[in-house]
Amino acid sequence: MMLLEATNLRKHFGKHTSVDGISFDIEQGSCVALLGPNGAGKTTTLRMLAGLLEPDSGLISFDGGQPGGDYRKALGYLPQAPSLYGWMSGQEYVLFAAKLSGLNSREAADRGAEVLERVGLKEHARRRISGYSGGMKQRLGLAQALVHRPRLLLLDEPVSALDPLGRREVMELLRDIRDETTIVFSTHVLHDAEEICDHIILMNRGRIAEQGPLASLRSQYSLPVIRLRTEKMSGARKWLEELASRSFVLESRFAGEDVMFNVNDVELARHTILSEAVSREIPLLHFETGSSTLEDLFMKVVGA
Ligand SMILES: Nc1ncnc2c1ncn2[C@@H]1O[C@H](COP(=O)(O)OP(=O)(O)O)[C@@H](O)[C@H]1O
Ligand SMILES: [Mg+2]
């Protein structure tokens, strides 16, 4: 079942188009990574989904309702740089968020205590937020976003600003929360997306470059590749460029002395490359056959 359907969303600021007509569905119960480099349009997209930013055009329909309907009560949102009030205690902050979301005092107190325990901050609930670590602050941010049991959780780069330990804390928490609610989280790190998500929406320059279930993107992009590196010399470079135009090479990518060829015939490619390297006396430093990965796709999209 679809929880949210976005159709042709567009947003510009001045002359700059930040989100350029994107459409996607969020399936109930899924964990979706909104993946893309800085400036791709992730935050703008999440703010539109959260109802904080009016799209220039396009429609958002939540839970089969009329496009444009108000579904904000069903949302939890954690902004990229949340402004937590350092002078408040964790407990005060969560109560404050609970009341803002419409819970009465009794519900707010019960539910606040429950989520603080849920995110592992029960013991620190009475401490001032200013004394929290980065990971603790982000977990408090998650508590705030979860307090009213949202059906959809929107998280903007929840782990990007954290050190490795804090990142681990929050990723593990997200892995648990994933079973309770539908999550969309943005990241510029493919690895984070692969770690906990089942769907990926890959954005670049305001557009969606690829989207779909992680597993099918993986198999779709698992194409035969050859990676090689030669010693730095002009003859080698010329030869590599020549190779790139052979019929067995579908696509090539050069990065300094490293070259990657997508090939349609690994055997032919291997034989040709190795025998030519010998006959032309080109010093090969590295030669590897394998499959392309999502990392290759990500680099290709980002580099484009
Ligand atoms: N309020 C704003 N005013 C002007 N430009 C903006 C504003 N918000 C975002 N942008 C621009 O829109 C583009 C996408 O930004 P953003 O959605 O924040 O990307 P991401 O979150 O993927 O890094 C960027 O080029 C950014 O500079
Ligand atoms: Mg952002």
TrEMBL record:
Keywords: ATP-binding, Nucleotide-binding, Transport. Residues 4-230 form the ABC transporter domain. Pfam families: ABC_tran, DrrA1-3_C. PROSITE patterns: ABC_TRANSPORTER_1, ABC_TRANSPORTER_2. InterPro entries: AAA+_ATPase, ABC_transporter-like_ATP-bd, ABC_transporter-like_CS, DrrA1/2-like_C, P-loop_NTPase. GO terms for molecular function: ATP binding; ATP hydrolysis activity. SUPFAM superfamilies: P-loop containing nucleoside triphosphate hydrolases. Belongs to the ABC transporter superfamily. This is ABC transporter ATP-binding protein YxlF. It comes from Paenibacillus albidus. The lineage of its organism: Bacteria, Bacillati, Bacillota, Bacilli, Bacillales.
